[in-house]
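Researcher: Structure prediction, please.
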Amino acid sequence: MNIVDHLEKYLGRAESCWSNDEFKQAKIIQFKQRPCDGAITYATLGMSQTILPLSDNKYVRHELLFAAYEHYPSRDIATFLLSFSEFVLSKDQALWRGDVIGPSTPIIDGIAMNSVYSNIPVIFDKNLSTFYESESIPPVVLIWVLPILQQEAEFIKLNGWGKFEDILETRNPDLLDLNRSSVILPSDLYSEPPLNNIQPVDMSEKKFALTADQIKPLATGYGGCVATDMITVHGKPVGYMVRIPTSRPHDSGWCFTAGTESQEYMDNSANHAVYDVNTIANFSPDIIPFLDAPPQSAFIRDSGTGKLVPIPYEPPLE
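Model: Predicted structure follows.
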């Protein structure tokens, strides 16, 4: 049995084939009506000719899987998967479950997903995930390349893939829909409400004032924060920043607003979201000198000088 036989055993007959002279090491095959009616699963073919290190003295080979509804353009998806396979091979390092690559540009035109998540192919038969060709060479580990939104990528980097998968299991989003809403809520980092029956914020509808490639490493390592759309979408500078005490790992405690938001605006969870502090520093760089202030610190933008100045801390209302 070879890798094609293995794929066809669990996915059915392979159809179509894409290759590109620009990408020498792999081609793309597709399996229609998999994992469900109206969907297509795409697989690389050829990556597994290369052995990649996973850890000390452990090696694997890879092929990649990608699944989406059939109305998304197959050629665009195939081109993305070819490009991504070349990227993985160029790094000379196997993928781990939970790896996040991105954010970058959207994976295909017309969607907001600009990152990918490395996962085991849990939407298929469990026996698909690994192909043992012979004892003399490493196994082929199949990676489900799951497209995700920028907010989801930042959440995973801050909180780990285990928490992200807990949310996926609880909220059960349609992962074949490349235009789905984000599963991450502001409350996921800053409070611990029950996860059931919470509607996610549709980040794909937000048009950010800065694009992903404009975000520079200005204030890395601080962790997560909450910021309003007045800053990230409308491009207003931070007008109020407060650091709330927290015991959560990777949670900075910082909350940022423009200072003009009404209570009604703040009560609508669609108007704010979780970001890395570095992201907000790019929107308003003059917050950077204050980021090391201790918990229970607060700053407001002085209307006369235009500068951020300290004010007494007031605990948030319960």
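Model: The chain is about 20% helix and 25% strand.
Researcher: Thanks, that helps.
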